[in-house]
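Customer escalation, tier 2.

The customer says the design service returned an amino acid string that "doesn't look like it belongs to this structure." They asked us to rerun it and document both sides in this ticket. The original structure tokens are below, unchanged.
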């Protein structure tokens, strides 16, 4: 399973998720049932997955201490970050942050960024 397919499987594990393409087919956007964005994805040259997601300002500052996470373009000042995934550790981090982003945007339980439950991605 590719990283993008794994992200899609994770996103659709949340009830009512919608996938839309407001900025073109190369940028899938995952939304809650109420139409609020919780993750955006894209592939970089070389096949590296890029995921943009929402965190609280404090969680964003903590996450950006990692070298593969940076403030998201245009919306970084609101806590959004971009995670670049090229290995298992980066995927596991991104997975937990996508879960947290969904909680924040959908209004779910408050938890610590980076917590993750059962993974959607399976290794071959």
């Amino acid at each position: 399973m590719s990283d993008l397919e794994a992200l899609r499987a994770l996103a659709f594990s949340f009830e009512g998720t919608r996938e839309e393409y407001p900025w073109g087919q190369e940028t899938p956007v995952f939304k809650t049932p109420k139409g609020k964005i919780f993750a955006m994805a894209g592939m970089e040259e070389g096949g590296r997955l890029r995921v943009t997601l929402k965190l609280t300002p404090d969680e964003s500052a903590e996450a950006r201490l990692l070298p593969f996470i940076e403030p998201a373009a245009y919306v970084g000042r609101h806590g959004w970050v971009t995670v670049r995934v090229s290995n298992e550790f980066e995927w596991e981090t991104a997975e937990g942050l996508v879960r947290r982003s969904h909680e924040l945007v959908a209004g779910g339980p408050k938890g610590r960024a980076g917590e993750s439950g059962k993974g959607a991605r399976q290794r071959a």
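Tier 2 assessment: The sequence is consistent with the input. Strands lie at 18-20, 29-31, 37-43, 49-54, 69-71, 80-85. DSSP finds three helices and six strands in the chain. Sent an explanation to the customer and offered a walkthrough call.
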